Structures are given as C-alpha cells and as structure tokens.
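Bench notes, bay 3.
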Amino acid sequence: IDFLTVFDPSSLEYALTDIINNAPSRVRNMQMNLLGTHDTERILTLLGGERSEGRSNEYLSKKKLDDLERGTAKRRLRMAYAILATVPGIPAIFYGDEAGLEGYHDPFNRMPYPWGREDNNLINFYRNIGRIRRNNSVYKEGEFKLICLDASTLVFERYDETYSYITFVNNSKL
C-alpha cells in the first residue's frame, strides 16, 4: 500500500525479498495474500481517500471518495491486484473489494455487497487477472525473481523450465 500511495517501496521490498526468499516453496506457493480484511479499512478507501486518523465516526460514516479520489484509487487497486495475483501465493479477495466497496474502519468496512451497483469495470479486471493466473501454472508454482523495485517501478519475473512472464508496474506520479 505504501508503494502505491506514498511511493515508498521498503515494505514491498521486504515482502518480495526476505519473506519470499526465506519461505520453502510449498509454503510460499500456498500462503494467503490479501489487500484487505474485515479488520482493515477497505482497500479502495486506503488507496484513494484521506486518512481516518483524528476523524470522528460521524464524519467517516458520511465520507465517500470524490470522483478524482475514486479514479486514483481504482488505478492503484488495479496495480495492487495485478501484483497480488502474480507474486507467489494465493490471492484472497475480501468480498466487495472487487466491486468497488469503500469504507473506513469497523463498522464502515463491513457494508453489504452492493448487489446491482457493482463497479463492473473493476469486476471485469479482477476476472481477467484471475483468468491469466488460472491459465498459466507459472503463477501457481513458478519461481520468482525481483528485477527492479524503486519508488515508481516494480518489475519481477515468474518462470519455470518452459515459461517466463514479466510483471511490470509503473507507479509514476503522472
């Protein structure tokens, strides 16, 4: 999240080097990777909204992302999910994140699924990434190599004896 919001790659670097390199492959390939849970603010809110610290629950209950914030958050969420789905491990999605639910801390992050009001562009993105992952076994069992990570760029390779796929994330401030 810090890589995408404040252009700080240090936590991501730790996850992609120390954690991945020190876990046996049977653990690394089965670990549950997630962006949000019922115990965290909604990922869309974290990626595009103002911080909740110092804000009253009354204020947070009414606060929604404006169009600019939501656009930024959706762009960042697509990058975040592309990373999550292509690094070692199994991507886990907290219900509603794929549909564009917003929300600050509990209880605002536990709103019901927005049946009939889903963000179909986000849902289709999640489906497409899922299809790519499902159809390419290298994302389930392949090796991982970090190629580049700085404040605005992430590049890594997933490979096996037959295939090599590169994930490139451009997180520049453009």
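Next record in the batch:
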Amino acid sequence: RMMPAVVRFDRRMFEQYCKSMNLKYLVDSQGNFRVGFAHDEERGCQLTVWLLAAGSTGQILAIRVESDRQIPKSDWPRAMLVCNMWNQTRRWPKAYLNVEDPQTEFSATIELEHQVDLEPGIYQELLNDMINTTIVTAFSFWSWAHKEQGF
C-alpha cells in the first residue's frame, strides 16, 4: 500500500474530515468550522467543537472544545484544580478555565484545546485521526469531570 501524500494544511481538510465522519457543521465568517454535539447525561453538558487554522499563515491546527456548562465564580478554584489534575496526567487536550476579566465576570467555562504546527504539511488520514482523538479525549474529560469531580 502506498503512503498517502503529505499536502499543505488548509481549511478544506476540515470539510473533508466532517464529510468523512458524516458530521453536520457550520462555517463562520473567518472560515472556522463548528460542530455541535447534543447535551449528554454522561458528560452533563453540551459540547461544541471548533476546527481552526490559526497562526499568521493558517499553518496551526487548533481544535477547541467548548462546553455550555457555566462555572460560578465560587467554583473557579476547584475548576482550576480539576483542569490541573487533567493536564498533569493526560497528554491532550489541555484544559483551562476560560476567564476573560475576573473583575467583571461571575461565571466562566472550561475549554479543552489541542494545537499543532502543521507548516511541514500533513496527510488527510493523520489529520482525521488527530481531530478524532482530541474529540474523544475531550468527551472523556467531561465524563470524568462530571461523574468523578462533580462538574
């Protein structure tokens, strides 16, 4: 079997990924792909996956998984500890409490993110695997956070 060809990374690869997985998606005005997943009792939340081509030339694959779960300010220290526990024992995606202005915000969300510089190029099957792995592990973060950590 021949090895797949390495090609320049671009957003069209996100469309190929979504179609290959039969996922419904939206594309925003910046060309970012948004895939929504329904609320799930196992995870205790609804998740949105963003597929982004970041960086000055769009060479960085960024996969961001956002939750609709709002964390009240009183739970921020515990949420940060849960993110740290995850980050210490898991390779990806990184978890963090997303707070833009702690002076004015009273709730925040936990986001999961994985970024890779794909300047040298990539082949579609590897990109698909990277996205799938990030989504599956983000889902497992939320199952763990919900069932074992009370979020």
